[in-house]
Amino acid sequence: DADVVGEDEFLGEATVLLEALSDAQLELPLSGGAGSVFVSGGPVELLAQKQIKPWVGYEDIAPVGDLKEWDLASSKAVPMRVAVAPMPAALRGIFWLTEQGQGSALVSMAGPTHDGGGCNTGHLVKNFYSVRVSGD
Length: 136
Hints:
Blueprint: E1 26-29, E2 36-39, H1 46-49, E3 94-100, E4 103-108
Antiparallel strand pairs: 1-2, 3-4
């Protein structure tokens, strides 16, 4: 099936901080030495400037919801959803997204949500997952 990526088709992964990206291409080696990928960054308007249209398989991204506060000292239950099957066990939890310049955020892979835009669907798509984060 062309929509399913098996372990034998996985080439590796690469990681970069968003603040490290610029309009110049950056070559990132893939884990396992299977090659490299080239990435670059730019302003929000970049895709429109290059006449690249968003993938039509997803609805538009929804507005960010209201921020909520939680007092760890007064509660035992965490007010965040945690991913469940079919997500891999390694993605079931609450993660602290750090080293993002001036901000950080708690992230969950739980879904589906009302985020839209293909974010937080609750399942991997071709071995990838898009998360929408609204940090501090």
